[in-house]
TrEMBL record:
The keyword Hydrolase applies. It comes from the Bacteria. This is Putative restriction endonuclease. GO terms for molecular function: endonuclease activity. Keywords: Endonuclease, Hydrolase, Nuclease. Residues 66-212 form the Putative restriction endonuclease domain. InterPro entries: Nuclease_put_TT1808, Restrct_endonuc-II-like, Uma2.
């Protein structure tokens, strides 16, 4: 009877209980990882050494965590970001509205909640906003980097560092034509374009609140909507 019960038992989950809050630290406290796997907080995000079963661990966490908690995979490392602030979401919503006319002219689809894959597999991210070219081989909420005309990230405390470095290199490696970084923490807007050999060869900087020239005969208004940005808002 005991053996029969063990055989029927569901595999244990990776969380002891649902996190008390949608934050990286709250997720860390509830983690129950397989033997030999480790987790740490760095740069405001939770980083898990997933090892050979990183893909399985990431898939389980995506299923178990609230949708607002972002799970991404970079090879054997899984990176978890807590739910964004309202100031962050306001900026993303504003950018979606502002870029929509240029996207419509070119028949690009403006999307949020999209997963971007590396062609080689083993890594994926979830940008704040993307413009997907027509004729994408992948349909729905999963695309290849080469399908994207633009990827947009809004960087805000406490986890802005990845958007500045890790995401930039990922998008260049994946073949995303241009990457727009709107840095609420530093007050900068940056356009990266011409991807080659794992990075972008061209960079254009502008203060937030000014027009950022885009490489397809358009400009992006980078004004911060509504209330001024404050960390944690």
């Amino acid at each position: 009877m005991v053996l029969h019960s063990l055989l029927r038992r569901e595999p244990r989950g990776l969380l002891r209980r649902p996190p008390a809050a949608p934050t990286a630290e709250a997720v860390r406290r509830e983690l129950r990882l397989p033997k030999g796997r480790t987790a740490r907080i760095s740069g405001g995000r939770l980083r898990i050494d997933g090892g050979w079963n990183a893909r399985w661990i990431a898939a389980r966490l995506i299923a178990d965590l609230p949708a607002a908690v972002r799970v991404e995979q970079y090879g054997e490392e899984i990176v978890i970001a807590g739910a964004p602030s309202r100031a962050h979401d306001r900026m993303v919503e504003a950018v979606a509205d502002r870029i929509a006319p240029a996207a419509k002219e070119r028949e690009w689809a403006v999307r949020r909640d999209t997963t971007v894959l590396l062609p080689s597999g083993g890594a994926y991210v979830r940008p704040d906003l993307v413009c997907v070219r027509p004729g994408s081989v992948w349909q729905g909420d999963v695309v290849l980097g080469a399908d994207l005309a633009v990827a947009v990230e809004v960087a805000a405390a406490p986890d802005a560092a990845d958007d500045r470095e890790l995401k930039r290199r990922f998008y260049a490696t994946a073949g995303v034509s241009c990457y727009v970084l709107l840095d609420l923490e530093r007050g900068d807007a940056v356009l990266y374009d011409i991807p080659c050999e794992g990075d972008y060869h061209h960079q254009t900087d502008a203060p937030l609140g000014t027009a950022l020239p885009l490489p397809f005969d358009a400009v992006l208004d980078t004004a911060i909507p509504e209330a001024p940005y404050r960390p944690g808002m």
